[in-house]
Amino acid sequence: MADVNRGNRPLSPHLSIYRPQLTSITSILTRITGNAMLLAALLIVWWFLAASTSPEAFATADGFITSWFGDLVMFLSLWGLWYHTLAGVRHLIWDNAVGLDLDSAYKLGYAVIGGSVVLTILTVIVI
């Protein structure tokens, strides 16, 4: 085995050294929104199953989904859906080797965040 002197080597950089970048934050949010939409889809499936089971089961599920907490979950799920969709479009743009420079990447990142907020508000107003 090689003689490795571990005492004189520098430590690996940690998260506290790096400043979070917009591209890394939007990438993390894309993963979070994808998983959160799965949980919201399970709630909706529960609602549909309860509706097909019995009036009592539906009253329980509907009471939860239409409560303030359920409304909050559905609103955030709607934002997550728009965010995840726009982030996917951004990745399709990047797959065509367009907008890969730093300025364009930041503009697309802000467009994804701003666009998802605007589309969420418009959806809530229209529906």
Describe this structure in words.
This protein has 127 residues and is mostly helical. The protein has one domain: Fumarate reductase/succinate dehydrogenase, transmembrane subunit (3 helical TM bundles of succinate and fumarate reductases). It is 76% helix and 0% strand. The chain is built from four helices and no strands. Helix 1 packs antiparallel against helix 2, helix 1 crosses helix 3 and helix 3 packs antiparallel against helix 4. It is extended and about 70 Å long. The mean pLDDT is 90.
List keywords for this structure.
3 helical TM bundles of succinate and fumarate reductases, 127 residues, extended
| Fourth-tier CATH superfamily name | Fumarate reductase/succinate dehydrogenase, transmembrane subunit
Instruction: Output the number of helix runs.
Output: 4
- The first-level CATH class is given as Mainly Alpha
The poorly predicted ranges are none
Q: Could you say which overall geometry the principal axes of the C-alpha atoms support? A: extended
The secondary-structure element order is HHHH
CATH topology: 3 helical TM bundles of succinate and fumarate reductases
- Secondary structure class reads mainly alpha
Helix amount? over 70%
Tell me about the largest β-sheet: none
Work out the strand percent: under 5%
Quick summary of this structure?
The protein is mainly alpha-helical. It has helices spanning 22-53, 55-65, 68-95, 102-126.
Question: How is the secondary structure organized here?
Answer:
Blueprint (H helix, E strand, L loop, with lengths): L21 H32 L1 H11 L2 H28 L6 H25 L1
Helix pairs in contact: 1-2, 1-3, 3-4
